[in-house]
Write a structure and sequence with these properties.
30% of the residues lie in helices and 20% in strands. The protein is an alpha/beta fold and 520 residues long. The strands form 5 sheets. The chain has an 8-stranded parallel beta barrel.
Length: 520
C-alpha cells in the first residue's frame, strides 16, 4: 500500500484545541466557547462516512446516492459480502488516526453528516450501532480536542430530493409526509436526549441544504414551521446546545429568516463555485446585523487552492467561522486526504453502466483492497489544500486574492476596474490574462484543475500601486516570485507587511500569481 507522509509529517500547522469546560454558544452576533472566549471556527466535514456520496467514489449517474451505491455494491459482490463491506467501511473510513490528523492540521471541529437511516429504523426506534459511531467519534474528539457539530445530512424521507440526502424517490418527502416529519422530530429528540450535557458536541445542524431549486418556493413556509418545531422539541430536553439553521436552495436562500427563533442559535450558509467577494455574502452579513445572530459557512471547497485561499480569507476577515468540505475522498486534489484507488477500481466505475465490466471475484478483491486503501496511513496528503485554508505557507496566491479591508488597507491602485461581477466593491483592475472567449464564471473548477489561460484573472497595476495578501506565516521575500500575465517575473518589490506581504509595482504591469518564499 501507499505509505505517503501524512499532512503533519510534511508540515506543521498551528493547533487550535477546543475547550470543553462549557458549551459553545451565541453571544452578540458571534460565537464564544464555554469560557466566553470569542471563536472563529475552523473545521472540516466528515463527508461519505455515515452518508456515502457518489462523486467521492468517482461514481456518476446510477450510483450517486447512498441507496444507489449500496445497490451497486450488493450487485457486484453479493448481499452477504456487501453487508460485511459496509460494517468494515464504517470502521475504516474515519478512524482515530483521522481525528488525530485533523487536530494536528490546525482545525478545531468536525462536522458530522448523519444519515437518519443509520441511527433510526423505519419504526422510528434508535439504531444503537449508528449511535455507537457517533459516540466513538465524540470520544476520539475529546481526546484530540475537537468539537463535533452534529449535522442531519439525510433526514427521513429526504429534505432535498437529490442524491445528497438519501431520499427514497428523488423528491423531498420530508415536507410531503406526516410520517417522515414525525420521524425527523424523533431523530432530533433522541439526539438531544443523548447529548444534552456533552460539551464536546458543538451544536445541532438541523437540516443540510433543504429544499433546493423549485422546492425552495413550494415549501418555504413548511421549512420555517419545521425549524420552529424542531427547536421546541430539542429545547424540551436540551437548553445548552447551539442550534444551527440552514437556508434553502443549498443553504443560500435566507428569505425565511425574518425573526429569531432561539437566542442560542446560528445561521448557516454554504458557498461553492462563485466569486469570492463581499457581494456574494452580503445577504448573510445583513442577516447577522439585522437579527443579531452569528453566521457560519458550513460547507465550501471542491475548487482550486487559489479559490480556497481567497474565499476563506474573505470569511475570516468578516469574522465568519467555517467548515471545509470534505476531509477525504478517492483520487482527489481538492481535499486534504486522497484515497489511492486500488487496482481494478476503473472496472468498478465502469460496472455502473456495464454489468459485465468486472467479475464477482475480482470485484470482491477490489472492495477488500479499498478498505485498506481508505485508512489514512495508506492515503496521500494534499498539504497545499490545508496550507491554503489556513494561509500558512500557501503554495500560490492568486493576484485577485488580495485582502478585503478596502483601499488604503488592502490595496492602493489608480487603474480602473475592468471585469464586472468579480470583487466589484474594490477599486482594483481585475482583468483577463487572455481576453477573448472568457467564461461568465471563472470559478467552476470543481476538480481543482489548473485554470485555462482564458479563465485566469490578472490584476493591472500602475507604478507604485500595491496589494496586500494576508498570510499567517512569515514569508521569505527574497525567494518570493510574482509572475506577470506571460508567466515571467513581474517588475515589483515584495515587502513583509503586518498581515502578510505587500506587492508594490515598480512600473506598469499585470500580475497573475504570487509564489511565496518559505523560510526554513
Amino acid at each position: 500500500m501507499n505509505n505517503a507522509p501524512t499532512l503533519t509529517d510534511r508540515r506543521r500547522f498551528a493547533p487550535r484545541p477546543a475547550d470543553f469546560s462549557g458549551f459553545v454558544r451565541a453571544s452578540n452576533a458571534r460565537l464564544v466557547d464555554g469560557t466566553g472566549r470569542p471563536l472563529l471556527l475552523r473545521g472540516v466535514g466528515l463527508g461519505n462516512w455515515m452518508l456515502p456520496e457518489g462523486y467521492m467514489w468517482r461514481f456518476g449517474p446510477g450510483a450517486e446516492s447512498p441507496r444507489q451505491i449500496e445497490s451497486l455494491v450488493a450487485r457486484l459482490i453479493g448481499d452477504d459480502e456487501a453487508e460485511l463491506f459496509w460494517e468494515q467501511f464504517r470502521e475504516a473510513f474515519i478512524t482515530e488516526a483521522d481525528i488525530r490528523e485533523i487536530a494536528a492540521s490546525g482545525f478545531d471541529h468536525v462536522r458530522l453528516p448523519i444519515n437518519a437511516r443509520i441511527i433510526q429504523d423505519e419504526d422510528g426506534a434508535p439504531i444503537e450501532g449508528g449511535y455507537a459511531m457517533i459516540d466513538r467519534l465524540i470520544e476520539w474528539c475529546r481526546a484530540h480536542r475537537l468539537w463535533v457539530l452534529l449535522d442531519l445530512h439525510g433526514a427521513p424521507g429526504g429534505q432535498t430530493g437529490t442524491n445528497i440526502d438519501d431520499s427514497p424517490h428523488g423528491i423531498p418527502e420530508l415536507f410531503m409526509s406526516d410520517e417522515y416529519r414525525l420521524r425527523t422530530l424523533q431523530v432530533w429528540e433522541e439526539l438531544a436526549k443523548r447529548y444534552a450535557t456533552e460539551t464536546v458536541v458543538l451544536g445541532y445542524d438541523l437540516l443540510n441544504e433543504p429544499l433546493p431549486n423549485e422546492w425552495q418556493y413550494r415549501y418555504a413556509a413548511e421549512l420555517a414551521t419545521l425549524y420552529r418545531d424542531l427547536t421546541a422539541i430539542i429545547r424540551t430536553h436540551d437548553t445548552n446546545h447551539l442550534i444551527m439553521y440552514e437556508g434553502s436552495h443549498w443553504a443560500t436562500n435566507w428569505d425565511i429568516f425574518t425573526e429569531v427563533w432561539d437566542e442560542n442559535s446560528c445561521l448557516q450558509f454554504h458557498k461553492y463555485w462563485s466569486p469570492p467577494d463581499v457581494s456574494s455574502i452580503s445577504t448573510f452579513l445583513e442577516a447577522r446585523d439585522r437579527l443579531g445572530l452569528p453566521i457560519y459557512m458550513g460547507e465550501g471547497g471542491e475548487n482550486t487552492i487559489e479559490w480556497i485561499y481567497t474565499a476563506f480569507r474573505l470569511y475570516e476577515t468578516y469574522e465568519i467561522g467555517w467548515c471545509f468540505w470534505p476531509w477525504k475522498k478517492i483520487a482527489t486534489v481538492t481535499s486534504p486526504i486522497s484515497i489511492v484507488p486500488p487496482a481494478g477500481w476503473g472496472k468498478i466505475v465502469a460496472s455502473i453502466d456495464d454489468a459485465d465490466a468486472i467479475s464477482r471475484p475480482e470485484a470482491q478483491r477490489v472492495f477488500h483492497d479499498l478498505l485498506a486503501a481508505m485508512r489514512i496511513e495508506n492515503c496521500e496528503a494534499r498539504v497545499n489544500v490545508v496550507a491554503a485554508l489556513l494561509a500558512e505557507d500557501p503554495a500560490i496566491l492568486p493576484s485577485w486574492g488580495f485582502g478585503y479591508r478596502g483601499a488604503g488597507e488592502s490595496y492602493r491602485t489608480r487603474v480602473s476596474p475592468t471585469v464586472p461581477g468579480i470583487r466589484d466593491g474594490d477599486s482594483v483592475a481585475i482583468t483577463w490574462r487572455q481576453p477573448g472567449d472568457n467564461p461568465a464564471n471563472p470559478f467552476e473548477q470543481s476538480d481543482g484543475r489548473p485554470y485555462h489561460p482564458t479563465e485566469e484573472l490578472v490584476v493591472e497595476l500602475d507604478t507604485d500601486d500595491w496589494l496586500e495578501y494576508e498570510v499567517a506565516t512569515v514569508v521569505d521575500t527574497a525567494t518570493t516570485r510574482v509572475l506577470d500575465r506571460t508567466g515571467r517575473d513581474a517588475p515589483v518589490r515584495v515587502h513583509v507587511s503586518e498581515r502578510g506581504l505587500r506587492v508594490v509595482a515598480t512600473t506598469s504591469t499585470a500580475i497573475s500569481r504570487i509564489i511565496p518564499g518559505v523560510i526554513g
